[in-house]
Structure formats: C-alpha cells, structure tokens
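My current task is to audit a protein record that another person submitted. What it holds is a sequence and that sequence's fold in token form. Thanks in advance; the entry in question is below.
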Amino acid sequence: MINALVRELEMRKVYLNRQSIRTVYFGGGTPSILKQSQLAILLEAVHKNYDIISNPEITLEANPEDVTNEYVKEIKKLGVNRLSIGIQSFYNEDLHLMNRIHDSNQSERSIIIAREEGIDNLNIDLIYGFPGLNNEKWNSNLERTVRYKPEHISAYHLTFEPGTTLFHKRKKRRITEQDEEESIDQFSELVRILKAEKYIHYEVSNFARNGFISVHNSGYWTQETYIGIGPSAHSFNGHNRQWNISKNMSYIKGINSGTGYYKGEIMKTKTKYHDYIMTSLRTIWGTDLIYISDNFGVKYYNHFLKYTGEYLKSGALKRKGHKVFLTSKGMFISDQIIRNLFMN
C-alpha cells in the first residue's frame, strides 16, 4: 500500500498544475496505524513531487489507542503540527455502540499525551445524535472536552452509513434513531457551550479558537483545489473531479498497471453550482451572490434568489450585502435548505 501511495503521488503531480501545496492531511481512515518510518516515506514523496510552502499545516488523524508519547514525538519530528483525535465520546457504552476499539481511559490519556508532547494545535472529534445519548451525557462530553482546551472541536451528528454495523442494527430494529427534538437540543447545547468558551463557530460542525480554523478543511468549503491519494480519495482541480476506487487490492493493482484505479468527470455548471452551495452556505463566510453570477450565470443567480426568499422571511437565512448566511435557526435545517436551493 505504501508503495502504491508513493507511486500515485508521482503519477498525479501535474493534476493541480504544479501549484503550491499549503496543507497535508493524513485522514479518511486510521492513518495512525502507520509507523513513523512509513509516514516519513509518504512525506518524502510529497516534498519530492510537489512545491510545498514553508511551514505547511500537516494534520494526522489518530485513534486514541494509537497515541503514545513515543509516537507523538516521532510524528512531530516529521513535521506533523496538527493532531486530530477521534474521541467520539467519553462513555464506554457509547464507544461500544459505535464499534470503537478504545475506551474512555484511553480517550483521556491520548489528550494528555498530546499536550505532554507539545501538540499545540489539537482537534477533538465528537459524535452526537446517536441512540442512547441523552442530553445529560452529551453535556458531560462537552464539558470534559473543553476542560482540555483543544484548539479545535469537530462535532458531527451520527449518520447510518450503508454497510456499517449500526445501519444493520437499525434495519433489524435492534436500535432506533434518536428523536429529532433531542438531536436539536444536543446541537443547541453544543453551540451554546462552545460559544461561551469563545470558540468560533465557523462551519456547521466545526469550532475553533481564534487563529486555529483548519486551513485544510476550509479549503474544501471555499472551493480551493485539492488532490486526494489512496483508496476512496477524492480530487478536484476546478474543472475535473475524480475519485479513487475503494477496495485496497483493486487500488494497488490499478496503480501498478497505471490504469483503472479511479473514475472521474468533467464538472458541468450545475454540478459546480451544487458543490458551491453545499459547501459555502455551511460556513461563516456564506454564499456570495456575485460569485454565483460571475461563475454560473444569471439563471443560477435568479434561481438562488427565488428559493432563498422563503428562508429569508422565516429567519433561517440572513443577507448582508451580497452574502447570504445560515442563521442559528437555519443551521438546524441546513441540509433541507441546501437541497431546496439545488437546481433540478
């Protein structure tokens, strides 16, 4: 797999027209299972084949059970300067439900280790809205999280992805989805508590201390180009979007033969418009009417104006100059709003 990733880095180096790279992100699975020596090989290939700015943001996603003092020391030597730990919950029964290997003690210990080893840009991932999570437990998770003063917090509502154990259990009616009102209450508490702790709510699911907004993730939401390496990875260069096949062995075989490891499409105006609405409206930077007019044309501009009207009246959206934003009320129904703004 490491050899295949290096080979893809070499093969894809012209995809972004040799523009400078600002961020490197090891994610999309369990990259913390990689040894320091394997990460070193990948970072060496990145630096060899791409123009990297000085002091780039380099993030590693880590499972709590993989975080040791020695491991953090080693990845810091490689230049990793941002650590994202998938805590999810501080309750063992919740972790068991979500099929996580780590326990609550490992969750707390991983955060302590990160701080001991000088990680000063730490993200903690949490999940809410899952069966059995009551508001009291959720508040406790939030309070324990802010106690460690992470620079960044990502909190996502549980989704039942096809093929997962949770999806199967729901289908067999062994578990049921959380009540919608309870999910709304938990999101409200998330926003309230983190706002009181001076976090910037810069995207529906993401909160940061001043100066610690994720450079990498913000690129997705502001239409920057990016390249994804490895199974299931997605790439976007402004005109073309492509995605790698998901099966590991098929990916390796495709890389070695030079063909058949990805699919792609030339993006049509409608697809670009949908992507822009889906990403921009979720952020504090909002959706830019001038950008819509200049990049997609008057038809899309008029469509957007028409279908935002009811949400502006209801208070789910607000307009300031040529920008449109979600309000606190709108964040609860952001997916519905975005779907209704799409062009049929």
Q: What stands out?
A: The chain has a mean pLDDT of 92. Residues 242 and 264 are 4 Å apart (CA to CA).
